[in-house]
Description:
Elements: E1 5-11, H1 15-26, E2 34-36, E3 41-46, E4 49-54, H2 60-68, E5 71-78, H3 82-91, E6 102-103, E7 109-113, E8 123-127
Amino acid sequence: NxxxxxxxxxxxxxxxxxxxxxxxxxxxxxxxxEELPGHDVNxxxxxxxxxxxxxxxxxxxxxFLARRGPGIHHVAYRVSDLRATLQDLNTRGFQLxxxxxxxxxxxxxxxxxxxxxxxGTLIELVQHGP
Length: 130
């Protein structure tokens, strides 16, 4: 069963340039760019791909790009009750980056699970709505 896939986050240097490359492949138009100063990133969606662009050189995504270059940053899964899911995962021994939900793109609540707990992949959990 598990949680349904919500989106795949891709770290990029430029949303505009990356969107132009992905739009014909995805058959979708890039959403407007959303500024997320609390995460120090700008994001936009092309279909189920979230393009993540750093807002400053201090952004964690800027460090990711410097270390690894552009590419998959995280995989996001949709959950109906983020707080309960985090409590359950914590009880099961997962290393949580966020023990409490925080605001994310599109007005959703989000939380991240550390890659050390998930076979090397950064996992984002997303609760749609308020």
